[in-house]
Amino acid sequence: MSKPSDKTLVIIPTYNELGNLPLITGRVRSAAPDVDILIVDDNSPDGTGEAADKLAAEDSHIKVFHREGKGGLCGAYVAGFRWGLERDYTVLCEMDADGSHAPEELHKLLEQIDDGADLVIGSRYVPGGKAVNWPMKRYALSKGGNIYISVALGLGLSDVTAGYRAFRRQVLETVNLDELSNAGYIFQVDMAFRVVQAGFDVREVPITFTEREIGESKLDGSFVKDSLFEVTKWGFNHRKEQVTSLVSELGKQADHGIKAFRKKHSI
């Protein structure tokens, strides 16, 4: 019997990941030999794109999508999603190129998809999850930020900024990818928020996040400021919409009650 995960595409965005690329693709191929890999390269000046083409020429499970320039992580994933949706993939996954997302744990995400989940997030902050080689300050900032975001948006998720994810294609066909915020890495939050609001089944599984050993992180200090500012606006608007909806519903109920009372008492 076929499963959704039988047709899985793992999307790996790259920018100057020449040292990491053969390592991460090799690990994916060993851990999940039946999935396909799409390398989305943003015209890396270090030759990552050329290395990706060589890997693809040697392995039919590896595909490459070249973008014209450094267009950001959100744009790379959206390009990868669209590439996969134009084909017959039923599950599309996000995975970092730097090894922070262990391909050996991909099965945890795919098992939940096969169990009926629509979006599965690999979480550092659910029981069993952890972050390795992170300074305490960064860990505290990330975990605290995730708590704030989840409460502000009413998501009920522990790691809404996480980038290790598996989506059913129906989710990506429903969400308007053109509207995703690309401020820093905030699109991960935006995507999760939209998926939860749409009523999809969102689950988290524990993963071990390992800080990169090769190359430089693309994350800068502006991420926290930009992200929390955006989330605060979204949270305010979300609560405003909830209150407006509640007031409207209460008004309808009151009007219905008044009409029923008048009818009963012939007023």
From TrEMBL:
Keywords: Glycosyltransferase, Transferase. InterPro entries: DPM1-like (IPR039528), Glyco_trans_2-like (IPR001173), Nucleotide-diphossugar_trans (IPR029044). Pfam families: Glycos_transf_2. It catalyses: a di-trans,poly-cis-dolichyl phosphate + GDP-alpha-D-mannose = a di-trans,poly-cis-dolichyl beta-D-mannosyl phosphate + GDP. GO terms for molecular function: dolichyl-phosphate beta-D-mannosyltransferase activity. Residues 10-174 form the Glycosyltransferase 2-like domain. It is an enzyme of class 2 (transferase). One of its GO terms (cellular component) is membrane. One of its GO terms (biological process) is glycolipid biosynthetic process. Its EC number is 2.4.1.83. Transmembrane segments: none annotated. The keyword Glycosyltransferase applies. It comes from the Bacteria. Belongs to the glycosyltransferase 2 family. PANTHER family: DOLICHOL-PHOSPHATE MANNOSYLTRANSFERASE SUBUNIT 1 (PTHR43398:SF1). This is dolichyl-phosphate beta-D-mannosyltransferase. The lineage of its organism: Bacteria, Bacillati, Actinomycetota, Actinomycetes, Mycobacteriales.
